[in-house]
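Sample intake sheet
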Amino acid sequence: MERERKVKVREVACKSALSRSRLSGLDYALNPYKGCEHGCLYCYSPAVIHYEGREGWGDFVEARTNMPVLLSRELRRLPRGVVGIGTVTDPYQEAEREYRVTRHCLEQLLRKQWPVCIQTKSKNVVEDIGLIGQFKEKEVGFTFTTADDTLREWMEPSASSVGERLKALGALRDADIPTFVFFGPVLPGLVEAGLEGLFTFMAQMSVGRVLVDRLRMHPGIWERMRPCLTARRPELVSAYEAVLFGSPEEYEQLLVEIADTARRAGVSSVVVERP
């Protein structure tokens, strides 16, 4: 597991809590941590935040311990809007169990009853079900990349298992907290097996919608992915290069097929994310 790599965790001070979001449905982004211990093979957060540090992404986590205090001040002067929690990090990674930055930020948001949309891959979100349930407008999204936990272990080494995420979806449903699933990025040749059963369970858990996302080749991603594919699934390297760099039509068809599988399984709303 990735946690056995002894990810470095340190406390830092940030200058602000909320930033304007360009993501659909969100007005603000709030990221209680910088860095993420999950170590996902396909992570594009370093490119999004223009990370150029010396430490490898996935090797460190910075807990922004003063964020709740800053947030309380910002909530007094900013226009009310939907806050996306965890847009470039996981707000419920293991560091949260010690630092509780996410929880303390939620407490501030609850006082003003600002709408929240939480995105995670961690079972730890269930520890805050009682708090999240007090929001009048709330939503929790889980990311899934595969139905196969063996593949999950090397694509997302420190994230919660597929089964743990499904169990968390059930707990959220039982607490009447709306949920959605972010299925992606879609990795050709690695994600197709077992999807019908996975989506059927999501439908049974009353997941509101499934967003099917594509693999976005931001700088550095293929450089991380290629060695891992070469070592584990060398037969897929040329296929990835062809589909992702030369023949996008095949990849687009795969996205459509996955969306169709989710619809057949009974998911009420399925959307294929745009390029």
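Comment: Residues 2-269 form a domain with the pyruvate-formate lyase- activating enzyme fold (CATH 3.80.30.10). The chain has one domain: 2-269.
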